Amino acid sequence: MVDRRTFVLGGAGVVAVGAVGAAGWGLAPDRAKRLLGAGPDPYVPAAPEGRVRLERVRSAAMGGEVDLFTAVPAGHGDGAGLPVVLVMHGASATAARFRDFGLARFVTEAVRRGAAPFVLAGTDDGPNGWLPDRSGADPRRLVTEELPRWLAERGFDSGRRGLWAWSRGGLGALRLLEERPRLVRAAALFSPALVQGDPVFDSERELAGLPLGFWCGTSDPFRDAVRAFVAGLPEAPDVTTFAPGAHTRLFWNDHTLAAFRWLAGHL
């Protein structure tokens, strides 16, 4: 059986950069990276960023402060009145890293390619991922109650929401949506960290009527469980993509624009 923690914490893996130098890693040719046991850098559009903010906000649900990331596509000012795509990240990520991942550039590029404009917004998860834990932290309450309020306070149309999640965030998103299927208008799940026997398989019927999209690499360790979950849904997802790739940002970035365009169409 796949051990979820082993793979989701592994993320993109560990890369030896000594022969190239950390500062020059982004400029190193793909051949040099392969010789060091790494592949090419993940795709990031050359599009400009719009308004990007990383704020510290007080969360009663989490019992302390969390980061709040928002990205408005270039050319759309402060994003007033725009709908929102919520982000639920995987175990190897934090909201503070979203900008480094190029997510603000993906939003602008998606709009440039014809997607209706939207704001990307996300926070941090808790010690138990997106599930409540013994400390009292409740990320589900954060996502369902606090995050929509914070977004409305910043002028966004938080009533029109989509959701994008990957890895451990995908698992948390599915569990949350089985309890609150009308929380969002559509959900894009990248490589959700599912294993057979997880309680999420017991309540798939609750997702009936919610537009879903699934993207997973054919070399992803969670592939078989994702296939089984998709097969057990009460309705076929709008999008089901199993394509070459692994449980890495290289795969996820290659499919982010497609997911963003699809989500925008439901907002």
Structural features, described:
With 267 residues, this protein is an alpha/beta fold. The protein has helices spanning 4-10, 30-35, 103-112, 139-153, 168-179, 223-232, 249-264; strands spanning 51-59, 64-72, 84-88, 119-123, 161-166, 187-190, 212-217, 239-243. The chain has a single domain (45-264), classed as Alpha/Beta hydrolase fold, catalytic domain (Rossmann fold). Helices cover 28% and strands 18% of the residues. Strands 1-2-4-3-5-6-7-8 form an eight-stranded mixed sheet, with helices on both faces. The longest helix has 16 residues, at 249-264. The chain is globular. Residues 1-37 have low confidence and may be disordered.
Task: Please give a handful of descriptors for the protein shown.
267 residues; alpha/beta; Rossmann fold; eight-stranded mixed sheet; 8 strands; 28% helix; 18% strand; globular
What is the strand and helix layout of this fold?
Layout: H1 4-10, H2 30-35, E1 51-59, E2 64-72, E3 84-88, H3 103-112, E4 119-123, H4 139-153, E5 161-166, H5 168-179, E6 187-190, E7 212-217, H6 223-232, E8 239-243, H7 249-264
Parallel strand pairs: 3-4, 3-5, 5-6, 6-7, 7-8
Antiparallel strand pairs: 1-2, 2-4
* Weakly predicted, low-confidence segments: 1-37
The whole-number mean of residue pLDDT values reads: 88
- What's the CATH superfamily, by name? Alpha/Beta hydrolase fold, catalytic domain
Number of strands: 8
Q: How would you name the oligomeric state of the polypeptide chains in this document?
A: single chain
Helix/strand order:
HHEEEHEHEHEEHEH
Briefly, what CATH class? Alpha Beta
Strand content: 15-25%
CATH topology: Rossmann fold
Q: What is the count of distinct domains?
A: 1
The CATH architecture is: 3-Layer(aba) Sandwich
For the sheet with most strands, the description reads: 8 strands, mixed
Structural class: alpha/beta
